[in-house]
Design goal:
Belongs to the GET4 family. By secondary structure, the chain is mostly helical. Helices cover 63% and strands 3% of the residues. It is built from 17 helices and two strands.
Length: 350
């Protein structure tokens, strides 16, 4: 007698018994995990991903955030084990689950963090998939979770993310009622401190943020003095002079960074006989840090460290002896709204 043929597992045969257990979320979740564990063991990873996705989606639809997200996180883990790459299909499965995840509690962040970790390993960008960062950033922005949104919108680097970031920062500074300097720094310097500097999102953010601040509906529009041509061939056609040294500095900093030495040029060659553009950068930073005042945004330790990083990496200026440190951008992002800088810590805690 010939051996009985082994049935190939299919979605149609394995998924219905799991979903039939609903609305008992615990039983459906446990059966899903057991079923998919066997599939992974027998090297049917793709089918396991499909079952975990379908089960997670149905659990989230009936507001079972815990079980739904646990199934979604397990789906992402199996995707990593199977080395499934970031593409439109794999990204869409994650964004569908994120859209269904409750806005309250830790569930949405848990799923988003797992997704970014996977995309860092199996996408083209070491900081995570830009499209996924953009989706998550906009999601948090709509939830009014501004600190979480900021991290993803900055990490995305897409033009649309920079536009959303500008709108969010405008709302965060209460339409200009709070000093917008801290918010402008947080949306500009992280891009300029990248290696190489990321000019497009910095330009997009700053021009949009200034446009919003100068609009008639802004509480800050009377602080705009005049606009003058930038007299350069670089991105900013005009510089908006305001009563804020920080806003003025950021516009000039953006232009100056674009005039920095090309990659590969040595510091000695870049400085030449007269100090070159590096000397202009040092003068710009020194002048506006002084104008900002000892309690101003530009004088804050973390901002100064970030400017020093730009000096060293972009303009090839040797750092002062004993200077330096790790995680400068993280320090910048973690400090400006925690104290000083126009009272942003208070609004961030609302």
């Amino acid at each position: 007698m010939p051996p009985r043929p082994i049935k190939t597992p299919t979605l149609d045969s394995l998924l219905p018994p799991i979903l039939a257990l609903l609305p008992n979320a615990y039983s459906a979740h446990q059966k899903c995990l057991t079923t998919t564990a066997r599939l992974v063991h027998s090297n049917h990873h793709q089918l396991a991903v499909e079952i975990l996705f379908a089960t997670s989606k149905e659990l989230l639809k009936i507001n079972e955030g815990s079980s739904g997200v646990e199934s979604g996180v397990r789906m992402i883990q199996v995707m990593s084990e199977a080395e499934i790459k970031v593409d439109d299909k794999s990204r869409a499965s994650i964004t569908q689950l994120l859209a269904l995840t409750p806005t309250t509690g830790p569930w949405r962040k848990k799923l988003a963090d797992a997704a970014i970790k996977w995309s860092q390993q199996f996408g083209e960008c070491p900081t995570g998939d830009p499209n996924l960062h953009h989706y998550i950033g906009e999601m948090y922005y709509k939830d009014r979770a501004f600190p979480l949104a900021e991290q993803h919108l900055l990490s995305s680097g897409k033009r649309d993310s920079a536009l959303t970031l500008a709108q969010m920062m405008y709302e965060w500074c209460d339409h200009g009622r709070l000093d917008p300097g801290s918010y402008a720094v947080r949306g500009t310097l992280p891009f300029l401190a990248q290696s190489p500097p990321s000019i497009l999102p910095a330009l997009t953010f700053l021009t949009q943020f200034l446009s919003l601040l100068s609009s008639s509906s802004s509480a800050y529009h009377k602080n705009f003095i005049t606009a003058i041509p930038s007299q350069t061939s670089f991105s900013l056609n005009e510089v908006h002079l305001t009563t804020s040294p920080t806003l003025n500095f950021l516009q000039l900093a953006l232009i100056t960074v674009q005039r920095a030495p090309a990659p590969g040029v040595s510091g000695v060659a870049a400085r030449g006989m007269d100090g070159g553009i590096a000397k202009e950068w040092e003068g710009l930073c020194r002048r506006y840090s002084r104008n900002s005042g000892v309690n101003g945004v530009l004088a804050q330790k973390e901002v100064q460290e970030t400017l020093m990083q730009i000096s060293t990496e972009v303009f090839h200026i040797p750092p002062p002896r004993g200077a330096g440190g790790n995680d400068l951008l993280q320090n910048l992002m973690g400090s400006l709204f925690g104290g000083g800088g126009g009272g942003a810590g208070a609004i961030g805690a609302r």
